[in-house]
Design a protein that fits this description.
heterodimer, A: 169 residues, alpha/beta, 5-stranded mixed β-sheet, two-stranded parallel ribbon, 4 helices, elongated, B: 206 residues, Rossmann fold, 3-stranded parallel β-sheet, 7 strands
Amino acid sequence: MNLPLAIRLGSTFQSIDVESGSSGRLVVQVPGESVVPVLTFLKEEGYGYLQLVSCVDWIDRGALQLVYLLSCYTEDEIGGEEGSQEVFVKTNVPRGRASVPSAIGVYEIAEPYEREIHELYGVHFEGHPRLTPLFLERDYEIPPFRKDFDTKQYVADVFDSVPPVKEEG
Amino acid sequence: MDRNELMKWIKAPAKMAHKYSLNAVYFCTGCGIIEVPPTITSRWDAERFGVVPSATPRHANLFLITGYVSVKTLRAIIRTYEQMPEPKYTVGFGSCTINGGMYWDSYNTIKRLDKYIPIDGYIAGCMPRPEAIFVAVTHLWTLIDKDMADGYKRYRKNYAAYRANQEMVLGKLEWPPLFPKETGTGTADGAAMAMDVASHTTGRTG
């Protein structure tokens, strides 16, 4: 069912890996540098809506996985053929130097997602106009959503170390 | 009016007036704010107890902190609390304000709220039902009667310690101290009250 788009993707890009996910979704594994070309290709194919950008820390593999979830509103937009309504674009970046090109040029809505991932996972997005803190007030040595961030130790060091106010009388 | 309370009205009319006109800051921190709309509207009708939501903290005297407090929210809570006119009462709503609740090991949730601002009472539970707010309000009446709802006085007295704790978490605060002259703790009450007048006119910040 997903064959036409999958074949077209495979013939356009050499270094990607296309497979069918659950419930008709298409999962596309791409290397970091071809994220933007693949997203551009898929947008021209009718996947005009970026639902979200997510990040997973696979600490055993030493990689951070970025997940771009694309969808289209109508089946007409994907050329009338029976295609998947949703496409996952996944890319792995090494944890040590996590850096990928920003997808803002293709999908403008990626901006807050990339800011959030930069803040919580420490992924650098090349070409992002303002990678400033979005939610957090404090500075964290390790970004707090990475698996090697020890929350219990952090809480003990920071919040538990604040002394209670001694009130006389 | 309850005839049994007549003597209280004659002895301390201001205190009685405070008791029955609690204007709550409508400040949404955590999930506990879900319980507040049914509490103040027709189903539970908090106005029976004299509790009405207030549009701005500058007209309010009851601060319900409804749920977990993140570092960023703490900044807003301190600013809100310092803008409220005295006498003011704070009630921590839900277990998150007591010891962090289910966010006890979060990277961004301050755990005990009473380290940063004074709390007059807590409503335990996750979530407390609207009835619990009324139990808290009636308890607060008792505390006001007995002069035990003195959080704002404790804040004034131990302001240096509270401010130091706030700066431990938030870093340097960008607003000047609310009570700049009372840096030392253990000031005599009379001297503290005299200084209050001065700090009210000069120390208040927007």
